[in-house]
Amino acid sequence: MHGRVVSAQGLTLAVEGLASWLHIGTRLKIAPPGRPPVPAEVVGFRDGLAQALAFAPLEGIARGAAAWLAPEARLAVADGWLGRVIDPLGRPLDGRGPLPPGPVARPLSAAPPEAGGRARLGPRLDLGVRVLDAFATCRRGQRLGLFAASGVGKSSLLAMLAAGADCDVAVLALVGERGRELRGIPGG
User: Fold this and answer.
1) Looking at residue 182, what is its pLDDT?
2) pLDDT above 90 for 13
3) How many C-beta atoms surround the C-beta of residue 67 within 10 A?
4) Dmax of the chain from CA atoms?
5) How far apart are CA 186 and CA 44, in angstroms?
6) How far is 37 from 28, CA to CA, in rounded Å?
C-alpha cells in the first residue's frame, strides 16, 4: 500500500492515495530517489490529501515521490540510556554510538495513565537550588516545567538542577531549544 507526494511546503508534504487508510499520528516513509527514506507523521487532511510533517530535511524529495505506511514508532528503553542525549524519536545525538535496546518496546505515543491509577508522590526532593527548595518544593516523582522568555537563564537553571538534585535519575527534555543549550548540562 503506497501513495505519492503531490506537493511540499516547508516540512509539510501533501500525500495522495493513502488518505482513507490514515489518521492523525500515522507514520509514513517518503522515498527520495537514491537516498534513505524520510520519516514523516500525518498531522492533518485537506482536500482529500494527507498532510504529513517530515522529521528530516526534504532534499531530494520531488513531486511523485513514493510514500508508504511505516510501523508504529516504538522505543525499547534500557538502563544503558541513562546519561545519553537522544532526539524525540530515540536516536542518539551524543556521538557515543547506538543505544542498547531494552526488554520491552513501548509505543512512542501513548495515552497517559489514569489520574486515579498513578502512584503517590514520594518524599521531598532536594533540588540543590536553595531558592527552589524554599519557594517551589518538589517531591520524588513530580514533574517540573520551566517556561520563560529567551535569555533569562532557563538552561542555566536546568544545569543547576541536573548537577545538584538529590536523585538517582533526572530526565530533562529541552523542547524547542537549540543544540548549544545542551553544552551547559551535565551529560550533554
Assistant:
1) 59
2) yes
3) 26
4) 59
5) 38
6) 9
